[in-house]
Amino acid sequence: MSRKKQSEEREPNDDPVHIRIRNLHKSYGNHHVLKGIDIDVLRGKTNVVIGPSGSGKSVLMRQIIRLEKPDEGEILVDGRDYAQLRGMELERTRRSMGMVFQASALFDSMTVFDNVAFPLREHSTLSKKEIRDRVMDRLQSLGIGHAATKWPAELSGGMQRRVAVARATVLETEILIYDEPTTGLDPMTVKTVDELIAETEEKFGVTSLVISHDMASVFRIADRLTFLHFGTVIASGSPAELLENATGPFMEYVEAAGVREDLIASRRGS
Amino acid sequence: MADATAAPVDPDREQGGKKEEPKGPGFLERGLETLLSPFAELGVLARMLFDTLFWAVRPPYRFRLLIEAAEFIGVGSIFIVGLTGFFTGAVLGLQLVDGFRQFGAQSQTGAVVAMAMAREIGPVFSALMVSSRAGSAMTTEIGSMRVSDQINALMTMAVNPIQYLIVPRVLAGIVMVPILTMLFNIIGMFGAYLLSVYVMGIDPGVFVGRAQWIVDVPDVVQGLIKASIFGATICLIACRQGFYASGGAAGVGRATNRAVVHSAVAILALDYVVTAVVLGQGL
Ligand SMILES: Nc1ncnc2c1ncn2[C@@H]1O[C@H](COP(=O)(O)OP(=O)(O)O)[C@@H](O)[C@H]1O
Ligand SMILES: [Mg+2]
Question: Up-side HSE of residue B270: CA atoms within 13 Å toward CB?
């Protein structure tokens, strides 16, 4: 009930940029990992950040979802500086974000149902029955209703990602962050995870931010692409634009990934 | 946006990714670091204790997690604590009757066993057993939650991991280790009685009488206070090692190993400190 009121209170936001990141810096000791990042995350789109391992993609995500505090720079969510938010506003912004971790990070001491119910039990005043309905609804719409009583360890990698998505979206999530959702999966499962991302965006109206180093997958899903190279953004735009003007490290990366020429050509055509 | 002007080359990379290698810490610095590391560790533990107390008094209170932790630490350790209690008491009975006989003091066996159990052996042995059984399992559990991002997942769901994972375990340790200590003492006395009376031929009335004569409420209280402190300490150490584990499954293994070693050292060192404080001498 109260949750509903909260979301009504919030004025509709027409700004196409959901998260604005400006001049973001992060160091660990004297290891300067993020060196002034600027990114616009577009509302309701699939925003992909790619880059070689160690370029700081996971570190960037940890700043956005506030697992860590940046040393310098701003992260504006709906135009408001995350670092300035306090109390209820901070809570609300925090809950508007969900994260799907690289290895799903499901609680292995809980069943699938309890994993998905966890955020509701923690943060809502819903009754047992309402929680049950909401969780089952979410599981069913992601095609894993039958797995509710299973343990995470009993599921395949693709199913675990689905459960992680269900858990991350069960509160009224507006931004869903995926850290390398396809790493370590076979090509068929990669494809279903790609579909899952698109599907989730459509069904729950979320903004997706996906970290990846899988080029083939990236070209299937990305509306907007940002190339991160050792802590700096060296290219960003639509995939077609980026391919058009690919130079330097980005070109090398595209070539090394062996993205098929016809895929590139078809993207150029569109 | 940063593009052409920003050099797309990582300066660390240019130096082969190993910056500062030539200026690494020298022999002296490394030696100093080794000497100081126990103090650094104490600092980490103090910080964690502070956070644990801070989060323990804030709602929500998670009684279900507390009960689960108490069950895991307490009920799960009954068998092993009872077993070690029995053998410890039995061997004390054997040794003391045999030793005291040399100067005709075997009638004091009950008194000495009871005193030693209540003040020292009960709390120390129970805590050591709980640490090696429950503590190590806690480190492994929390450590694998850390390395598989489950702790980060908790944080992204706006649940404080100290409050969720550590508070219930430390509170359960404070409550359950004294209870296990009482169990240890009772079974230990029973073991000592069996051996002294039925094997070594001590008069049962003398054994029990001497034990009752010497052990007073303060002795038992001293033991239970120690047990509480040990309980808090070993759970805190176990949680700390798991919470900051890194380096995958192997890292969790190393953390578990450290938790057991640190706990044993902490129990024995704290035992001395608490004894000295309670007796008012030796500090
Ligand atoms: N907590 C940390 N402490 C120190 N260094 C870190 C930490 N997290 C990441 N790094 C370093 O930051 C760099 C980028 O890491 P990461 O963001 O995980 O890369 P990736 O792009 O593969 O996700 C790496 O060199 C890594 O060693
Ligand atoms: Mg990463």
Answer: 23
Q: Supply the pLDDT for residue A104.
A: 87
Closest ligand to A228 CA? Answer: 1
Greatest Cα pair distance, chain B, in angstroms, is 95
Looking at all shown ligands, the one closest to residue A56's CA atom is: 1
Write out the two tokens for A87.
């109390």
- Terminal CA-CA length for chain A: 45
In A, what residues contact B, Cβ < 8 A?
Answer: 30-31, 35-36, 38, 62, 65, 67, 91, 94-95, 97-99, 101-103, 105-109, 118-119, 122-123, 168, 229-236, 248-249
A234 and B9 in contact by Cβ < 8 A?
no
Q: Give the per-residue pLDDT at B72.
A: 96
Q: Give the ipTM of the model, two decimals please.
A: 0.83
CA A39 to each of CA A53, A227, A234, A245, B117: distance values in angstroms, whole numbers, following the listed order = 19, 10, 11, 19, 66
Task: Report whether residue A183 contacts ligand 1, using a CB cutoff of 6 Å.
Answer: no
Q: Looking at the predicted structure, is the pLDDT value of residue B225 above 50?
A: yes
Please tell me the pTM assigned to this model: 0.84
Q: What is the pLDDT of residue A12?
A: 58
CB atoms within 10 A of CB B274: 16
A230/B150 touch (CB, cutoff 8 Å), yes or no: no
| Ramachandran region, residue A142 (left: φ > 0; alpha: ψ -120 to 50; beta: rest) | alpha
Q: Check whether B111 has a pLDDT greater than 80.
A: yes
Calpha distance B165→B170 (Å, rounded): 9
Residues 6 or more apart from A211 whose CB is under 8 A from it? A48, A49, A50, A57, A58, A60, A61, A177, A178, A179, A180
Chain centroid, CA B142 distance in Å: 16
Task: Enter the tokens of residue A95.
Answer: 């809950």
- Given a cut of 50, the residues of chain A with pLDDT beneath it are 1-10, 270
Which pLDDT belongs to residue B7?
Answer: 29
Instruction: For helices B167-193 and B122-130, give the axis angle rounded to 10 degrees.
Output: 130
Count CB neighbours of B105 within 10 A: 14
Which of B10, B20, B23, B151 best tests the A interface by mutation, with the highest count of A CBs <10 A?
Answer: B10
Whether A67 lines ligand 1, by a CB cut-off of 6 Å, is: no
Rounded to an integer, the average pLDDT of B165-177 is 97
A54 lines ligand 1 (CB under 6 A): yes
The secondary structure of chain B in percent helix, strand, coil, rounded to multiples of 5, reads: 80, 0, 20
- How many CB pairs below 8 A link A and B? 72
* DSSP three-state, residue A99: strand
**What percentage of chain B reaches a pLDDT higher than 90?**
77
**Residue type (1 letter), B208:** V
